[in-house]
Every structure is written in C-alpha cells, then in structure tokens.
Design goal:
The structure is a single chain. This protein is 30% helix and 25% strand. By secondary structure, the protein is of the alpha+beta class. The strands form five sheets. It has an eight-stranded antiparallel β-sheet with strand order 1-2-6-7-10-15-16-17. Strands 3-5-4 form a three-stranded antiparallel β-sheet, with helices on one face. Strands 8-9 form a two-stranded antiparallel sheet. Strand 4 and strand 5 form a beta hairpin. The longest helix has 16 residues. The radius of gyration is 19 Å and the shape is globular.
Length: 311
C-alpha cells in the first residue's frame, strides 16, 4: 500500500494505491501534475485559468478543452439532478459575499473588502439551464451575465477522473479535499475504511467508520470555510434561491454515492434543504446513503447507511 499527499485546489489531497511499492509510487507521483493541470483549467482563483477566460467571454460561443467541457457538462447534470440546489452559476454571488480569493488567503476571520474583482448582480434572468454545450465542436455558450464557479463539483470530478486513470494499477483511493473516490476494495478487504469526522470535535473519535468498496463519499459543511464580512458571518454553501449563505440547521452532511461528484452534489443539496427536508430527499434516492450532523449535535442517518458501516 503506497500513499502520496500534496496540496492542490486549495485543499489537502491524498492518493492511496494498493499495489507493489515501485509501480504504485510511479503511478501516484503523476497525481500532483494531473491536479495542477485541472486546477489551471477550472479554478476561478487563477486569473489566467481556462474557466476565467470562458467567463470573460460570456454572451458568445467559445472553444474549451475536453476536460473543461466534461466538468461543465457534469455540473449541469448535477444541477438537473438536484433540481437547481447545486448551481454552477454562482460565481458573482460568491464574489458579492467576499469569497473573492482562495480560502487560504481569505481566512476564517477575514473582514476585508473585495479585492477589486468586478462582478455582475444580474444575469437578465438567465441561468444554468440556458448554458449551451456542443461537445462535438468543443464549444460552450454562456449567456451574457452568467459566470461559472465549478468549486466542489470540480474536486469531485477530479477525484473520479484520477481514480479512473489509476484503476488499472490496482485498488485506489483518491481524496480531493474530502471528496473521495475509490475503485475496488483493497486486497483481502471488503472495502476502504473512511472515517466521518465529528465537526464539533475534529480531533476526537470519528462519528462512524464507513466501508466503501466502490464509488464516492463527500462531506459538505459549514464548519470550515467560514469568515466575517462587515460583521456578518458568512460561509461558502450558497442557497441558489437567495444567492446568500444557506440558512440551515445542518452543520455537515456526508453522502455515499456511485461517484465522488454525485456524492459532492448530493451532500450540498441535503445541507441546503435542512435536516428534515434533506433527509427525506436522500431517502427518496436509494442509490444514496448519508449521515447528517445538526448545529445542536444531533445526528441522523439514512435507512440504508448501516450496510456501509465498518463492523
């Protein structure tokens, strides 16, 4: 079992491969390069990223790389699957609440003014449903005033893509800042053990140990990316209806899904809806399982979570 740790996309990354040392090491050392390439393509925090070049050309069709096309199309599928609860067109809303640089630079106690980036407060009624993708020609048309922030969807996509690329080397786990993709269980095991951290006591005992043989796990939460702007607490999970930080009683939502990208989208959708509606939404989708932690410490789990618990 070989492991590599590195930083990318503003998060701690990890790759684990269950294979002989030398070939595993040679495979894993490719991960930082892959993530650097993907980050340069899809980051909204890099002025020269491919995504920001596309955002600057909103209102007309523009050519994009295959990877960016894939991520954007995946983000639109996530928007459809969550009935708009996951919205990739919230870049301007993120800037408006002060999230105008990577969180490492913003910091949890930040009350600084905007860094000078311009943002639009209107998209003339257009939204993610108006984005046009032409995979054959490699063109994407963003409506005027619509700008993309791929955020967590990009990390989930990257985790899935990296795990897919490494799968031929042996059972693999890729953790992209908490968006985890696994392909096949480790040798002589029924699955990868994945701890669910207690958001109220991150250094304490985990709330649960999951057993994941294939697919993805992701946690969405208000416990980490928080800051203050003009005396008002902010967090990075926006409600698309208000375009403001979601008002919810869910502190963290952990979801197991067929892929890390789907887990990421579902966890965010559950958190935004709150514990009661979010759990009902989760139960209506038997291919998903989840665990919610509320602000007061209460925990709730989906009916099918038991089959994923490590015993």
């Amino acid at each position: 079992m070989e492991q590599i740790d590195f930083r990318a996309m503003g998060s701690d990354m990890r790759g684990v491969l269950d294979a002989p040392w030398k070939p595993a090491r040679e495979a894993l050392i490719q991960l930082p390069t892959w993530f650097e390439t993907w980050e340069q393509s899809m980051s909204r925090f890099r002025a020269d990223s491919e995504l920001n070049q596309l955002n600057a050309q909103a209102g007309r069709p523009n050519p994009v790389s295959r990877d960016l096309m894939d991520v954007i199309m995946a983000s639109l599928e996530a928007a459809k699957a969550t009935e708009g609860l996951v919205d990739p067109t919230l870049k301007d809303a993120m800037l408006a609440i002060g999230y105008d640089r990577s969180f490492e630079k913003l910091g949890p106690g930040s009350n600084e003014a905007s860094s000078g980036l311009e943002y639009s407060t209107t998209s003339n009624g257009a939204g993610w449903w108006d984005i046009r993708c032409d995979p054959e020609l490699g063109l994407i048309h963003l409506p005027a005033g619509v700008h993309l922030d791929l955020g967590g969807i990009g990390k989930g996509w990257a985790a899935d893509r990296a795990a897919e690329r490494l799968r031929g080397q042996g059972p693999v786990l890729v953790d992209a800042g908490g968006d985890i993709a696994v392909s096949d269980p480790p040798h002589r095991s029924q699955g990868w053990p994945i701890a669910v951290t207690d958001p109220r006591n991150p250094d304490g005992e985990p709330l649960a140990i999951l057993k994941i043989a294939q697919g993805g796990v992701a946690t969405s939460g208000r416990d980490f990316r928080r800051w203050t702007r003009d005396g008002v607490p902010q967090h990075h999970i926006l409600d698309p209806q208000t375009r403001l930080p979601a008002e919810t009683d869910v502190l963290t939502a952990t979801v197991i899904a067929p892929s890390a990208l789907e887990a990421e989208a579902a966890a965010k959708a559950v958190l935004i809806q709150g514990s009661r509606r979010g759990m009902a939404w989760l139960e209506r989708r038997p291919h998903l399982a989840g665990l919610l932690v509320e602000d007061d410490g209460r925990m709730s789990v989906s009916l099918n979570l038991e089959s994923y618990l490590w015993t």
